[in-house]
Design the sequence.
């Protein structure tokens, strides 16, 4: 694998991780602000993680596509 490709993949992974954390923390904070804490907390955290993972996956796909297109398709 080219060194440039490794750098691009690391950048995309970092952006996806940041998106995951942002989505996860925002969904948890909404639950806390709404005061919904007496239901099944594990299920709610799991759903929050699922939403965050989906957002991170979309972010990774988007950033990977943008990086590929801007580099002329050379990865």
Sequence:
């Amino acid at each position: 694998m080219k060194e440039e490709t490794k750098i691009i993949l690391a950048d995309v992974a970092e952006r996806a991780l940041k998106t995951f954390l942002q989505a996860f923390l925002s969904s948890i904070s909404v639950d806390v602000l709404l005061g919904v804490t007496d239901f099944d907390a594990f299920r709610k955290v799991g759903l929050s993680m699922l939403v965050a993972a989906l957002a991170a996956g979309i972010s990774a796909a988007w950033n990977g596509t943008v990086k590929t297109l801007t580099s002329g398709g050379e990865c």
Notes: Residues 1-34 form one domain.
